[in-house]
Amino acid sequence: MTELNFSAIGDIADDIAEIVRLVKEFQAANNVKVNVTRLPWERAWQTLLMTAMEGKGGDVSQVGSTWAPTLAALDSLRWFGEAEIRALGGPLAFVPAAWQTVRVEGRSEVWAIPWSVYTFVIFYRRDLLKKAGVDEAAAFTTPESMLETFQVLQSAGVAPWAIPTTTHYFDLPHIASSWVRAYGGDFISADGKKVLFNSPHARQGLVEFFSLYRFLPARFRGLTYEACLDEFFAKGNTAVMIAGAESYSDALEEDGIPEEFRDQIGVAAIPGVPWIGGDHLVAWRSVRLDPEKEWAAVALVESLSSAKNQVRLYRENTILPARLDAYVDLEFQPEGMRPILERILQVGHPHPPTRLWRRIESLLVDMLFDIARSVMDFQKQEPAEIVEAKLADYERRLALVLGG
């Protein structure tokens, strides 16, 4: 019997319970034994990197969409042929932004198959916006309108928002990128070789994004993402929360939204160009040494990435599918989420699929947290002055990384 090793990412066993069930069904149907290993998020990248460097231990893995280009650049993955891609429905079967990250710059091969997508939306309290006299239909349409909304909320005595301000909030580049792209900017060039975040367009977006931090109440500083979700969904202490699109459904399932709040929670797209990330499935290069194992690895990827199984993953784990045809059979919460998601899936952008993204992302996390902390700490200084000075400094640092 052919035997495969499959690694899935999750912090607890429940995170991958449905994945294990799907794998067991694949085993029974194909007479293939699959050993499933759970990788906690905090160790996943290092474990996968070691697999890539050593060339042993893995056959099929779940990887972050931004990780795949680095792993491909190490020549550690097996690429997928045209016939295999056609069997999956072809590129048009997938969310456009997800398919943009299956290659690495300078090469034409497809190294990964999109499995899930992840994106952020704005959740807001209708009653609190109404109390402040804010029109919810126009409140978040542009970076400027969101700033105006926060100003009005604060003047009305309503806490505008909560956002994580812990040292390493790794999602900060994903959220801020929407503002960066609102005026046609980006963090780095498409080929990953040029720093762009200090260009006039990107800088304007970042100034407007970090100006929002002046509206963060002091009592909410230093909170984790989970604590911010609690302040919004469970306690109703803030009017706005930027969170993963699945957050409302997750909180509802955990009975974390009081009955009186549920009808008052609305959803809107983040202004600018929303970011789309997610996970891919990859087969490691080592499977080429055994034709039966190679066939089984590709078959497992095809099974897990089918529309039917992606629908199951969403219903059990609220993991958004990477396949467009899976959305037909799904329902979303709260009311109004479906049109918001449909728009995001069509216009959203990933980060450039560059082989150095892991190093770039780490520096961006440090830079954006540094700016956020400075804007909060130095209240007498204009956010634009802080942002401009910090961007110039970090531009020099990242230029050295990209150049070396």
Write structural notes for this entry.
With 404 residues, this protein is α/β, with parallel strands linked by helices. Helices cover 46% and strands 14% of the residues. It has 17 helices and 10 strands. It has helices at 17-30, 41-54, 68-73, 82-87, 96-99, 126-132, 143-155, 172-181, 200-211, 225-234, 247-253, 259-262, 291-304, 307-317, 337-347, 357-377, 383-403; strands spanning 2-9, 32-39, 60-64, 77-78, 113-125, 161-162, 240-244, 265-268, 276-284, 320-321. Strands 1, 2, 3, 4, 5, 6, 7, 8, 9 and 10 form a 10-stranded mixed β-sheet that branches. Helix 1 links the parallel strand 1 and strand 2. Helix 1 (17-30) packs across helix 13 (291-304), helix 9 crosses helix 17 (383-403) and helix 16 (357-377) runs antiparallel to helix 17. The model has no long low-confidence stretch (mean pLDDT 94).
Short description:
The protein is α/β, with parallel strands linked by helices and 404 residues long.
Question: What's the N-to-C terminus distance?
Answer: 47 Å
> Could you state the order of secondary-structure elements as H and E?
EHEHEHEHHEHHEHHHEHHEEHHEHHH
Rg:
22 Å
Number of β-strand runs: 10
Q: Which word captures the global form?
A: globular
| Main beta sheet strand tally, sense and closure | 10 strands, mixed
Binned, the helix content reads 40-55%
Topology, element by element:
Elements: E1 2-9, H1 17-30, E2 32-39, H2 41-54, E3 60-64, H3 68-73, E4 77-78, H4 82-87, H5 96-99, E5 113-125, H6 126-132, H7 143-155, E6 161-162, H8 172-181, H9 200-211, H10 225-234, E7 240-244, H11 247-253, H12 259-262, E8 265-268, E9 276-284, H13 291-304, H14 307-317, E10 320-321, H15 337-347, H16 357-377, H17 383-403
Parallel strand pairs: 1-2, 1-3, 6-7
Antiparallel strand pairs: 3-9, 4-9, 5-7, 5-8, 5-9, 5-10
